[in-house]
Structure formats: C-alpha cells, structure tokens
Design a protein that fits this description.
Arc Repressor Mutant, subunit A; 133 residues
C-alpha cells in the first residue's frame, strides 16, 4: 500500500482501497478512535448493512489497513476494528496525494479561469459558518 506523491504519479497515489466513499468514511472514523470501534458502531454510524460493512472491512483487512479483533464480552461476541500502523501511514499518504490533486484542480479552476462562477476557497466550502439570520 505504498503511495508515491510524485507529481507525475499524483493520481496513481490515490489508493483505491481508501478512495471508495464508505471505506474512506470507515478509515477516517477509525483514525479518531485509538481504541477502535465495534462492528455495530461502524454499522450504525454509516448506515451500512452487515454484509456491506463486512465486505468493506474484509477489503481493508486484506490490504492490512485495519486489524479486526474478535472477543467475548460476557457471553456475547464483540468485533472491534482498529486502524493498523500500516493503515494509518498509508491513509496519511493517501490524504496527502488527495490534497495535491485537489490543489491542482483548484489551480485549474482558479477564479481567473472560471467564467460566471463565484470563487470559493476550500476553507469557505468545508468550514461551517455561523448562521446569518
């Protein structure tokens, strides 16, 4: 899962394992959960079916991006999903490549190039503004 953010290979550095929207969401959530998240937490957070979540987790596990731990809490089984060290490093590389792609796209569609389109920065687009009532 090694990524190359060399500008010639910019798009090839966008790891398909992370680029799928549900897997992007899963790995992002796991990045903020040092103790991992349970299967049921992921399932409810992303409104996925058991089968769909299992398929995404299997793909991430095969890519060594996550670790799946199975244990019993009392008599009930619990599956916990954690981001692996390799997965964290690969995801950071993926995010860096994605950021470069977005910056490149922003330069192409810079305000001086756009016609009849207001300029919007990434900050304006992604940072919630207080309601102006």
């Amino acid at each position: 899962m090694k990524t190359d953010t060399n500008s010639e290979n910019l798009y090839s550095a966008l790891e398909p394992i992370f680029h799928e929207p549900n897997r992007l969401a899963i790995v992002s959530a796991l990045g903020g959960a040092p103790d991992g998240l349970t299967f049921n937490e992921l399932k409810s957070q992303f409104n996925l079916t058991d089968g769909n979540l299992s398929r995404h987790l299997k793909a991430l596990e095969e890519a060594r991006a996550i670790v799946i731990e199975k244990a019993f809490v009392g008599t009930r089984p619990r599956t916990t999903v954690l981001l692996s060290d390799e997965g964290r490093e690969s995801f950071i590389s993926y995010l860096q490549a994605l950021e470069e792609v977005l910056h490149k796209a922003n330069r192409v569609f810079a305000p001086e190039v756009r016609r009849n389109t207001p300029a919007v920065s990434y900050d304006d687009a992604f940072i919630a503004k207080p309601s102006q009532a």
